[in-house]
Amino acid sequence: MDRKATVRRFIDEAVNGGRDELVDELVADELRPGARDWFGAFRSSFPDVHMETVELVADGETVVGRFRCSATHLGEWRGNPPTGRRFEGVDEVYFFRFDGDQIAELWGIETRSTASGSSGWTRPSAPRPAQVPAASMFFVTTSIVRPSSSVGLNSTTSVPA
C-alpha cells in the first residue's frame, strides 16, 4: 500500500476535483462525517480551491504533506460573508495518520497572515489542540508566528468530527 499515493489522490481528486464520493474509499468510517461536513462547507465557500502538492514524506502510518493552497472567497465561511477576494499560495502542512489503507486522522497548519489578510476577515479563536481530545477533532488549523527567534502558536481553529 502506497500511503503517499493515497494522500496525493485525496488532494488531487477529492479536494481539487470535488469528487466527494472518494471520501468513502479513502477515509476511515469514523472520520467520514466530519470530512464530508468540512469539505462540503469549504467547497461551498471557496468553490475554486486548489491545493498544489509541494512535498510528501511518509513514515510508518503517517504521511506529512506540504501544500500551497489558492481559492476565492465566494460564499459565507464561519460567519464571514463572501468578499470575492482571492488568496494565492498559502503554505500549509498536513499530517495524515492511516489505519490500514485509509486516512484515520488529519490535522494541519497554515500561514494565517496570508490567508486571513487576503480574504478580509479573521478566524475566531478556539481551544489549542491540547485542550481538545484528538478523537473529537477532524481538522485543526494553527497559526504560527515567529516573534524574535522562537516559534509560538497564535491561535487554533477546530472542527468537531
What does this entry look like structurally?
With 161 residues, this protein is of the alpha+beta class. It has a single domain (3-160), classed as Nuclear Transport Factor 2, Chain: A. The protein is built from 4 helices and 6 strands. The protein has helices at residues 3-15, 22-26, 32-45, 112-119; strands at residues 50-59, 62-72, 86-99, 102-110, 137-145, 152-160. It has a 6-stranded mixed beta sheet, sandwiched between helices. It is globular, with a radius of gyration of 15 Å. Residues 113-161 have low confidence and may be disordered.
Overview features:
161 residues, alpha+beta, Nuclear Transport Factor 2, Chain: A, 6-stranded mixed sheet, 4 helices, 6 strands, 25% helix, 39% strand, disordered C terminus
